[in-house]
From TrEMBL:
A matching Pfam family: TPR_TAF2_C
Organism lineage string: Eukaryota, Fungi, Dikarya, Ascomycota, Pezizomycotina
InterPro entries: Aminopeptidase_N-like_N_sf (IPR042097), Ig-like_TAF2 (IPR057345), Peptidase_M4/M1_CTD_sf (IPR027268), TAF2 (IPR037813), TPR_TAF2_C (IPR057991)
Biased composition, class Polar residues, residue ranges: 226-243
Organism field: Trichodelitschia bisporula
Key word Cell inner membrane present: no
Biased composition annotated in UniProt, kind: Low complexity: 1294-1307
SUPFAM superfamilies xrefs: Leukotriene A4 hydrolase N-terminal domain, Metalloproteases ('zincins'), catalytic domain
Cellular component, GO, one term: transcription factor TFIID complex
UniProt subcellular location: Nucleus
Keywords from the UniProt entry: Nucleus, Transcription, Transcription regulation
Residue ranges constituting the Transcription initiation factor TFIID subunit 2 Ig-like domain according to the UniProt record: 572-755
Location of the region described as Disordered in the Swiss-Prot/TrEMBL record: 225-254, 1205-1267, 1280-1324
Protein name in UniProt: Transcription initiation factor TFIID subunit 2
């Protein structure tokens, strides 16, 4: 029976008291694609935690509650939806943002408060009930036992802005219709669900889902479809048009017969009990039932409904794995929309192997008790790449790629593997507090990286970990620790990205230290122990905290790790080492000094950039402070010395002080032994002599970089070896090279100065990819020499190197391409490209062949390195420009099975960069007219080539429209550098609906980069596109573009477009003019940048209107509404007043119909002259006598009503104003006089008026009379103007005098008696 719903505006939402616990929840929903509505019920089994529980508070946002019962008794409820406050009210402006925020904060508590009926009593549980509750494994042992309550809620969901998204139902959206749920589990975000629940992450219970949907795709009708088009899903190819604007008309889906017969499927969290359960309804409906017996949070319950195809990914598992795992084997199923099954197979192929790896390394599948399968489903418009639910990962179709595309293999595979790892930790195990969220991120990505090491190899794993460590050192400046970062993850997306970067690295270096200390028990063993403790119930409610993880690490690793956690988890920053060494011949020791310099001077801080301006501003406003600089990081560090005999000696030293000296013993007695062997091998290789038969004591294998050793190669490639003086110095060295932190146990930067030949030996003879990477990074930072270029070239040409090291060598070769060295680095790059990818002795490239993935990346890397080459004037050499144009023009991919979209995009980008060199400075000299003409012809040819690929993409779309997006980016660079007279309007067609999402976003980004955000028209359109966009992913990306545009304005960046108003072009000269340096100084701080932004936009009325429209949008979600409110906070000062708008009153025309009936009609004439101020409602009439006689009395009455007479005069004047029935109203309010009449606000009921004729001042007095008049005023009229006249007996009005005014009556005779005439005007 439905309960009684009280108005939400009469109740205040109450905070949820910990007075109950949900043991089990059942959700029964029916999906209606026509109205985009979810209708259903939910039943919750609630365990009271106290005897006096009288109310239940639930999250119930965006839901319309129809009725509530508690144990089958109707209950009173109060529903306050926070989304009702996420809009701007009538009369509000952008300056009233603080009032909107306060209302929103007050409403952002539990939305639904249910009063437990008086008929329901909290009783203690019996023995049978206690056993049932204990089996739920959710009851708190410390709480008393009470009988459970059954709460049933009937509700519906329509017009949702968060939590559920409908696709393919817009007027011009031709994608396959489907709907899915999504809820963020990040701390400090605003979750939204499609069912009432306790919306906290620790409110875990068991679940049962029943979803009813159409049986076939043809059973769906679609609103307002008029056009026909082929249905596609995703944005990998072609246009992706979507618009979910609601219309009232209904029509059938425009489907082919095959599409109408596509079966609708529901993929939900947990085990599917039935896919066609019986129910009372039409045969065109179908019911799916899922249950999840493992307690999970409501954030991790979700479902997807649509015409999905199933792909059995278990077919990629080898039979040996099935036999080895036995009953622990988990099935893997992929789901996608029609036409994308091959892409799912291509992307998800490693997932069965991944799950098997996790089961062997970290324990059984956490949902094994109710589900023997893991599901992954790909949908459109998902805000993030992956949303994790129990046994189901909802992924974006942006992750899918065909088999012919090579670039996204590693990042996409890692993201999908992380989605699998999140089933163990992230869904099954959750953080106890927001600060503990770093553990979830670190452990899940650590698990993913260990599998990626198994899949891709150790070199790939360590190389990427070193790249990430270098990135962390660059970013971890003036940032909070990963522990303190948890509550701030909702501020900006870059916060979570930084946590994903640093948190797994912390576990990586911990793993390195534990493995080195114990030999076997590393972080993988710690995670296994955590999962085991959660399985046996040692972790309360599976809520993991940092302190528990540290204690477990101490036990498993047999070490005290409190110092490590204090420095790397609770502390911020990274160490910077300054290392020096000296060989002491007397003591035969190597004296090393290790100093930490990160705390010796203040951190320079990160330079403000447009992309991070909004993040910095939010952190400052929310008091997110950077962690203090740690002057000392302690721990073991490994120093590996490769001595002269070629033997590496490892020495582990313990860093305990900021500056510490060590004496490392030297072991080799004959330091020239290895040098002679190396020289012998080089000579033998040059002569072509095979030394394989010689004894191992005489031969040392020369590992890497021993290519191009013959004299012919040296002459052809212009190689330069070490001089005799260098060889002599090298022979006198006591060791080959020294490595600090050889086992990669630290995240930091090490400055260690060694001679260049030592780093060369490290690059060529150390097999560790991290050592090779450190050597190339050091060589790149030195002054270029022919010898360094030769070493880097040999590294590039040696295929035994890991391909990432060869790419680093290519990047370092661009540094050696300088005019002082006769362009030796440029020659080596061109020669290498010709050797690898061109016909012999010809610059013509061969047909593309990307079957070798390593060579594909090298082919893309060489043009990137060439594009960075500049001469002494900062210009690109002409031969490099011709190189890019020729490679574009003669690119042949006809015989290649893989896509060349990325390679072509690289060439277009490099060509554009070469044309915009020297910061866009043009040479206006006329010394060489032929060169000017040739340059213009080359520019025209380059533009034609870029435009050709752009047009190709319109007919044959490339992967994610790579040709179009790259061409737009190249054109933006040329416009910004003023190289070519390209109209900026060329980008406008690409921002319109009808283009794919990636094209629209790129066009918006290019226009913002060109300074178009300063133009009202474009800015309004960008903001309108944001708040009217139905896709949550597009809204999130458009907001990033808006934030970047705001950052450019705040930092005074950008070019091109200026605001087209007179004030924008003002130039101030004199003392008030500020130099460019002063302007840069002002925006160097975040406060100065905020002031600059406010100064530029605070008075822009068009922006105010756009922001106000955005605040009133019914599309944006809660977090997006808060982002707009924060923008208002940046730009405007709060104002505690509102502008009231009143409609101008119209004159009314009165017509007498007879029998005391009047007809009032409204005219088209407006009253524009303001009247005296209105007063409180009352009624009174002033009789109008002859003007000259009664003028004073009228003035006195008017003054009395205005309150200007003293009390004695008020009583005397008020004697003529009496009211028969309502004396109280007369005493409380004083109406005002208008002309000869009275303005009377209309009362709410009929009023009886007492009319007293006035006594004339001259002549004999008359006997007083009273006449009662009954008036009824319509409610729609705002004002009543009443004028009472007493015409004379002889004439209806006094005769005018010569001056136009009526003459006074004669004083000898009183006025003749006449009828009272009441004239009333109603003003609407």
């Amino acid at each position: 029976m439905p309960g009684i719903v009280e108005p939400g505006d009469q109740a205040q939402p109450a905070q949820m008291a910990p007075g109950f616990q949900v043991l089990h929840q059942e959700v029964d929903l029916e999906v209606d694609f026509v109205t985009q509505r979810l209708t259903g019920t939910t039943e919750m089994v609630i365990l009271p935690m106290k005897k006096d529980l009288r109310s239940i508070n639930l999250f119930c946002r965006q839901l319309e509650v129809h009725g509530v019962t508690v144990d089958k008794h109707s209950a009173l409820l109060t529903h306050t939806d926070a989304y009702d406050y996420a809009t701007i009210h009538h009369g509000y402006g952008v300056e009233q943002y603080h009032s909107l925020r306060k209302s929103l904060e007050d409403a952002e508590t539990e939305d639904l408060e249910i009063q437990i009926p008086k008929q329901v009593r909290i009783r203690e549980a019996s023995a049978a009930d206690s056993m049932e509750i204990a089996n739920a494994a959710l009851k708190d042992d410390s709480s008393p036992g009470f009988k459970t309550l059954t709460l049933r809620i009937e509700y519906s969901v329509k017009g949702s802005r968060d939590g559920v998204h409908w696709v393919g139902l817009g007027e011009n959206d031709f994608r396959y219709p489907h709907v899915y749920t999504y809820t963020s589990s990040l701390p400090e975000t605003s979750p939204c669900f499609v069912f009432p629940c306790v919306g906290t992450l620790n409110a875990r219970c068991t679940w049962r889902l029943s979803i009813t949907c159409p049986r076939l795709l043809g059973d769906i009708t679609k609103p307002g479809l008029q056009a026909t088009n082929e249905r596609t899903n995703g944005d990998s190819n072609g246009a992706n048009v979507h618009s979910n604007e609601g219309v009232e008309s209904h029509g059938d889906l425009d489907l082919t017969p095959e599409e109408k017969n596509l079966e609708m499927a529901v993929i939900g969290s947990g085990l599917m009990e039935d896919s066609d359960a019986p129910f009372t309804g039409r045969e065109s409906k179908r019911k799916f039932i899922f249950h999840c017996t493992t307690p999970v949070a409501p954030h991790h319950i979700g479902f997807v409904v649509g015409p999905f195809e199933e792909v059995d990914l278990a077919e990629f598992r080898e039979s040996e794995e099935d036999q080895m795992l036995g009953q622990n084997a988990v099935g893997v199923h992929g789901f996608c929309l029609p036409g994308r099954a091959d892409e799912v197979r291509n992307c998800c192929m490693p997932l069965p192997m991944c799950i098997d790896h996790f089961i062997r390394q970290f324990g059984s599948y956490p949902f094994k008790s109710e589900s023997t399968s893991y599901k992954i489903c790909f949908v459109d418009d998902l805000p993030r790449d992956v949303f994790d639910t129990a046994t189901l990962s909802i992924c974006s179709t942006r992750l899918l790629y065909p088999e012919s595309v090579l670039d996204p293999i590693y990042p996409t595979t890692r993201e999908l593997v992380h989605a699998v790892a999140s089933q163990w930790i992230g869904v099954n195990i959750i953080p106890k507090t927001p600060q503990d969220y770093w553990l979830i991120v670190a452990a899940s990505y650590f698990m993913a990286d260990t599998f990626m090491q198994t899949l891709c190899g150790k070199n790939e794993y360590r190389f990427r970990q070193k790249l990430n460590a270098n990135r962390v050192v660059e970013l971890d400046i003036q940032r909070p620790s990963v522990y303190d970062l948890g509550p701030s993850l909702s501020i900006d997306a870059t916060e979570l990205e930084f946590m994903k970067l640093k948190a797994p690295l912390i576990l990586f270096i911990l793993h390195q230290r534990l493995i080195k200390a114990s030999g076997r028990n590393g972080v993988n063993r710690i995670i296994w122990r955590i999962f085991l403790d959660a399985q046996v119930g040692r972790i309360d409610k599976n809520e993991l905290d940092t302190e528990y993880f540290r204690r477990t690490s101490d036990k498993v690793g047999h070490a005290k790790l409190e110092t490590f956690f204090n420095q790397w988890v609770y502390g911020a920053g990274c160490p910077i080492f300054d290392v020096s060494q000296r060989f002491n011949k007397k003591k035969l020791v190597i004296e090393m000094t290790i100093s930490q310099v990160q705390g010796m001077h203040s951190a320079p801080g990160t330079r403000l950039e447009p992309d991070i301006f909004m993040r910095e501003a939010k952190e400052e406003d929310r008091a997110v402070y950077a962690g203090p600089i740690q002057p000392l990081f302690t721990g073991p560090i490994t120093i590996r010395i490769h001595e002269a005999d070629g033997t590496p000696y490892e020495h582990i030293v313990d860093v305990k002080e900021t500056t510490q000296k060590f004496e490392i013993p030297y072991n080799t007695k004959y330091k020239r032994l290895k040098r002679n062997r190396l020289q012998k091998e080089r000579a033998a290789a040059a002569a072509g002599v095979d030394l394989a038969g010689e004894s191992q004591e005489e031969v040392l294998l020369y590992c890497l970089g021993d290519v191009l050793q013959s004299e012919a190669d040296v002459q052809e490639w212009k190689l330069a070896d070490w001089s005799k003086e260098d060889e002599e110095v090298m022979n006198n060295e006591s060791y080959e090279w020294i490595r600090v932190d050889a086992d990669f146990e630290w995240i930091g930067r090490i400055h260690f100065g060694q001679p260049v030949y030592m780093y060369t030996s490290q690059l060529q003879q150390d097999t560790d990819v991290v050592a090779q990477m450190e050597a190339i990074q050091y060589l790149r930072g030195l002054k270029p020499t022919p010898q360094i270029s030769t070493v880097l070239l040999r590294t590039l040409m040696d295929s035994r190197y890991y391909y990432g090291i060869r790419i680093l060598a290519i990047e370092a070769l661009s540094v050696c391409a300088v005019e002082e060295l006769d362009w030796i680095g440029l020659f080596h790059l061109e020669k290498a490209f010709q050797e690898f990818f061109c016909f012999p002795d010809s610059p013509m490239t061969r047909s593309n062949d990307f079957s070798d993935r390593r060579m594909y990346f090298i082919q893309c890397a060489i043009p990137k390195a060439l594009s960075r080459v500049r001469d002494m004037r900062g210009r690109t050499p002409s031969r490099i420009k011709r190189f890019f144009l020729e490679k574009l023009k003669f690119n042949d991919n006809s015989n290649n099975q893989y896509s060349d979209a990325t390679y072509v995009a690289v060439l277009i980008t490099c060509l554009a960069e070469s044309l915009t060199d020297a910061h866009g400075e043009m040479n206006f000299g006329f010394e060489d007219a032929d060169a000017e003409i040739a340059e213009a012809d080359f520019l025209k040819a380059a533009m034609n080539e870029i435009d050709r690929y752009r047009r190709i993409d319109e007919w044959i779309p490339s992967y994610q429209n790579r040709y179009t997006t790259t061409a737009l980016r190249a054109l933006a660079k040329l416009i910004e550098a003023k190289v070519a007279p390209i109209p900026r309007a060329v980008f406008m067609p690409y921002v319109a609906l009808g283009n794919s999402d990636v094209v629209r976003l790129e066009a918006f980004s290019c226009l913002v980069g060109l300074g178009f955000f300063t133009r009202n028209l474009f800015r309004n359109y960008l903001i309108f596109s944001y708040f009217s966009e139905p896709s949550p992913y597009m809204r999130s990306q458009l907001w990033k573009i808006i934030e970047r545009a705001l950052g450019m304005l705040a930092l005074d960046r950008g070019s091109g477009a200026k605001e087209s108003n007179p004030d924008a072009d003002l130039v101030i000269v004199g003392d008030e003019a500020e130099t460019a340096q002063e302007a840069l100084t002002k925006v160097a701080s975040i406060q100065g940048a905020k002031d600059m932004l406010c100064k530029k936009l605070v008075d822009n009325s068009a922006l105010k209107d756009s922001i106000r429209e955005a605040l009133g949008s019914p599309v944006i979600g809660m977090d997006e509404f808060k982002d707009i409110l924060y923008l208002c906070q940046l730009l405007y000062k709060p104002r505690n007043k509102l502008a009231v708008k009143l409609k101008l009153p119209r004159y009314l025309k009165a017509e007498h119909l007879g029998q005391a009936k009047l007809r009032f009609t409204r005219t088209d004439k407006f009253r524009t002259t303001p009247l005296p101020a209105l007063s409180l409602p009352t009624v009174g009439l002033i009789a109008e006598a002859e003007p000259l006689i009664e003028r004073k009395r009228i003035r006195e009455a008017n003054d009395f009503i205005k309150g200007e007479f003293p009390e004695t005069k008020r009583q005397k004047t008020a004697s003529d104003l009496t009211e028969a029935r309502n004396p109280k109203a007369t005493s409380e309010a004083r109406p005002s006089i208008s002309g000869n009449g009275l303005l009377i606000p209309p009362p709410t009921r009929p009023v009886l008026l007492s009319l007293s004729p006035q006594t004339p001042r001259f002549g004999p007095p008359k006997s007083p009379r009273r006449k009662i008049v009954k008036l009824r005023f319509p409610k729609k009229f705002e004002q009543v103007e009443a004028i009472l006249r007493r015409p004379s007996a002889n004439a209806s009005k006094p005769a005018p005098t010569s001056g136009g005014r009526p003459s006074a009556p004669s004083s000898s005779a009183p006025p003749a008696p006449g009828k009272l005439k009441l004239k009333i005007k109603l003003n609407k």
